[in-house]
Amino acid sequence: MNKRDFFKNITGAYLGVATLAYIPESIAIPLIPIVGNKTSRSKLAFPNVPVMTHEGKVVHFYDDLIKDKIVMINFTYTTCDGICPGMTENLKQVYKEFGERMGKDIFMYSISLKPDLDTPKVLKAYTELHKIKSGWTFLTGTNANIELLRQHLGYKFSDPNLDRDKSEHLGVVKFGIESLERWGMAPALGNPKYLAEYVRWMEPNGTRPLLSDMMG
Amino acid sequence: MYKKIIRITGLEKQEADVARYLKEVRDIESAELTRRDLFKLGLTAGVGGLTAIGAGSFVPNLAKAASVSGLISPPCNKPWTEPLPIPKTAVAVGNFTGPVADKSQCKETQNLYNPGNGPIGSYEDFTEARTEDHQRWDELGGISACTKYELMAKEIDWNFYSATDYPAFNSKVWTYVDMNPNTKGEYATGVLRLKAQYGAPVLMRMYNGLPKNGRDTQGFGINQCSPHLHNAHNPPESDGGPMRFWDSGKWYDFWYPNIRAGFASTHKTGTYHPNGKWCPGDWQETQSTLWFHDHRMDFTSQNVYKGLASFYTVFSKDINLDTDDETTGLRLPSGQYDIPLMFTDKVFDQTGQMFFDIFNIEGILGDQQTVNFKIKPYLTVDRRKYRFRFLDAGPSRFIELFLSSTNTTVPTTMTRIANCGNLLPKAQVVSSIRLGVAERADVIIDFSNYKPGDVIYLENRLEQLNGKGTTGKILASSSKTQLLKFIVSSVAVVDNSASLATLQTQLMVPFPDRTKNPIKIKRKFDFGTSNGAWVVNGKFFNPTIVSAYPIEGTQEEWTLTSPGGWSHPVHIHHEEFQITKRNGNTPTALDDLSRKDVVRIGDAAQGTTGSTSITFNMQFRDWYGDYPMHCHNVVHEDHAMMIRWKIVPPTDPNAGK
After folding, report:
1. Is residue A124 part of a domain?
2. pLDDT of residue A2
3. Is the Cβ pair B542, A191 closer than 8 Å?
4. Cβ(B299)–Cβ(B308) below 8 Å
5. Is the Cβ–Cβ distance between B477 and B373 less than 8 Å?
6. Residue B657 resides in a domain
7. B189 CA to chain A: closest CA distance, Å?
8. What mean pLDDT, rounded, does chain A reach?
9. How distant is the alpha carbon of residue B126 from its chain centre?
């Protein structure tokens, strides 16, 4: 598929918005409470809302995508032509860095900031255009649920004007080892080798910084 | 206790909402409703207590409170009921219990008792993590010249609240623990201090005994560490930089030469203090109040919030200046009258456990401000002069400290003698002191004119509504702004420190003469944002990029700019700099008239006024290698607001780039 085909598909795919309607609204948690064990902390940090994959499957965000996994998460939308294409290409390099671990214990997720437009069909077309391989899933859902995920994952600013600007939520990737509750964040356009390294440095038996590579 | 998120809009309105909300919560508690009752009422109870409340109709103030963000800890009901923890001094050892330290990495293993730390039991084999050799090790006397300390980063139990208020509160805190007891058999832990002397290098063997992988971390922190001796003029391999972290089960020998800048470059033959005493390097680079804190890349905010921060105070007995003895040198209040105070704010859960929002990118504000890890402690003071060393340990809050007293006949001024890590040319008499994260101030407070029983409060009256930075507004003095209560004792004591008049007028450390080292290179660094991420000069942090290569022994002029919208306390490792321009003008504010290693730029850098540009001169002397410059709002730092630069010899192909 070329880019023109992709946009053609998108136009048709808007009809697919209806397919999201059956996803049940989650109950928004109005307050973030604080409790003292990992299970409850994780449940509160990661809303277990239903989201839909680019394959059209409905999954639960925490139970199916996050729990016990090593993950890298970013927000994007398919019609974004600012930094998004470069970001997707950069994350493809990160994917290569993870190699065979992708889809086994490491998973990448790109969540649409414009879920109304990015139906599963549109996302599927996008993954085909960019030759996204297994282990990297594009996600959409109801506006309320996606908004909840954005808020909980820290893609938010206290300044309402800044917060409203979707481009302000695009540039960083969140990565973590859920079982160890270790989470970091880095610019999505950072050096892809090191985006992968940041994850491995957090692993108990992962790699460690090689100073000789960092001396300019 | 219930916890919830409160978004801060208008502070007074918010406080009223919160107060009403808390009252409702207490009413529910006192009615002793069971969990089932709460469910019936539409309140959702979760594991570990009532955790989420979703019924705006039952709790009318909840909707208002819920529309806001910011975290609420259990209230401090019994302020001023626990004494201020005084940082204990770490104890030097004659010889290490383990292998002898050397210039290169130690290859031996050290088996240590480390109970309760994981599956392998009470004993653990430690190996050295350091891979780099110490620069100038032999030249400065090697191991035989070193005063030796053994510390371990460990998890301890700590109650930040008063035990009479919450007897069962217990936070899992990660701190540096001295492995050797003092003469009373006590081990320094929590906020501690090292006392060092110029001319006496310190070898600090730091064991990482943090909980093993897989142990509950209360949701934040990583058991890899890199203690950075903040503000020290040390070689990179002993600086504790962000990339040099190591794992639990290993140690690292940090070598702190305690030698003044210029010793191997601009002042090779040393310098003479006007009193005739000689020292290596430039005596006008003498420092006093440093601190060390964890610096593990991406996890600095979490690990420092967890407790990994303490004081390193360096004395200059060699030139009879700041001697740790109030009968000699500058005769500053010393011994038990020299007290470091660390200010750090936190949020606690219903069990008194620290809570940290790992998904916050702007900056973390705690609603409970602590002093040496206690909420609202008291200190009984003698009627004499004290030296307090203030440190804003963040993670993101700026503070402005004031005194207030019930006895209005005594002026509530402070005599400021130091800014960041160094003694000022001359003391400044001030009514308040603003500190960004990592900034320090040493002050003399004289209690001799108070009457026994008088009460004086140390207060933080600076308004800050979110993690981005301060508004710069000064709040009215109230019970909420009070951090520490001084109670004046009736006991008569001797005060051998110099008179207040002398302390306020005597020459301390004049600015180093920088005119002999002409500036050849000028650089500009813009601290901005792009698509929600931090950029310096438009670029994201990349560990393989070295952004500048200053030549060893030279001086450069750097200008930092910020478009505003944020407050950034920018910190540069390696040497202190001197501000020459703020917003293009010669600086006039007292706290700019000093050597610095942290400078506030952006919103409300001074007063309520922002600073869009800072220019300073900095020398790059004596050591080779890489150091970072980063924002010390540690949440910003962990989100890549950082660059690295490297000092090279003039023969290096990158020299001066």
Report:
1. yes
2. 66
3. yes
4. no
5. no
6. no
7. 24
8. 85
9. 28
Is it the case that residue A78 has pLDDT exceeding 70? Answer: yes
Task: Name the 3-class secondary structure at B345.
Answer: strand
By residue range, what is the domain housing residue B133?
A: 88-98+110-336
| Domain co-membership, B307 together with B193 | yes
Chain B hits for A72, Cβ within 8 Å: none
Mean pLDDT of A187-195: 94
Please report whether residue B398 resides in a domain: yes
Smallest CA–CA distance from B360 into chain A, residue: A154
Q: List CB contacts (< 8 A) between A44 and chain B.
A: 51-52
Residues B145, B93, single domain; the answer is yes
Tokens of B309: 């921060």
Q: Of the candidates B213, B466, B534, which has its C-beta nearest A158's C-beta?
A: B466
Whether B478 contacts B436, CB under 8 Å: no
Domain membership flag for residue A73: yes
The pLDDT of residue A7 is 57
Q: Are residues B319 and B351 in the same domain?
A: no
B210 and B271 in one domain? yes
Residue B103 lies in a domain: no
Write down the pLDDT at residue B30: 44
Between helix A84-98 and helix A192-202 the angle, nearest 10°, is 50
Domain count, chain B: 4
Who among A35, A167, A201 is closest to B46 (CB)? A35
Distance from the Cα of residue A120 to its chain's centroid = 15
- pLDDT tens sequence across B520-572: 999 999 988 888 778 888 888 899 999 999 999 999 999 999 888 889 999 99
pLDDT of residue A36: 66
Task: Identify whether residues B342 and B365 lie together within a single domain.
Answer: yes
* In a shared domain, residues B411 and B278: no
Query: Residue A208's pLDDT is what?
Result: 97
Q: What's the pTM value of the predicted model, to 2 decimals?
A: 0.90
- Cβ distance of B53 and A30 shorter than 8 Å: yes
| Cis before B242? omega within 30 | no
Nearest to A93 by CA among A131, A129, A126: A131
Number of domains in chain A: 1
Judge: B47–A153 Cβ closer than 8 Å, yes or no.
Answer: no
Residue from B20, B348, B15 nearest B162 by CA: B348
Q: Count CB-CB contacts under 10 A for residue B12.
A: 7
Does B354 lie in the same domain as B433? yes
Q: Which domain holds residue A155?
A: 3-19+37-204
ipTM (interface pTM): 0.88
Is the domain of B128 the same as that of B47? no
| Closest alpha carbon to B150 in B208, B76, B107 | B208
B197-252: pLDDT as tens digits: 999 999 999 999 999 888 889 999 999 999 999 999 999 999 999 999 999 999 99
Beta strand B278-279 pairing with B368-371: unpaired
**B656 belongs to a structural domain:** no
Q: Is B307 exposed, middle or buried (0-12, 13-18, 19+ CB in 10 A)?
A: buried
From B576's Cα to the closest Cα of chain A, the distance in A is 23
DSSP B513-530: --TTS-EEEEEEEEEEEE
Cα(B339)–Cα(B386) distance, rounded to whole angstroms? 8
Is A26 inside a domain boundary? no
Cβ atoms of B545 and B539 within 8 Å: the answer is: yes
Average pLDDT, stretch B300-312?
97
CATH code, A63: 3.40.30.10
Residue at A76 is within a domain: yes
Sorted by sequence, the CB contacts under 8 Å of residue B32 that are 6+ apart come out as none
Q: Which amino acid is at B607?
A: G
Q: Is the dihedral of CA B213, B218, B220, B223 positive or negative?
A: negative
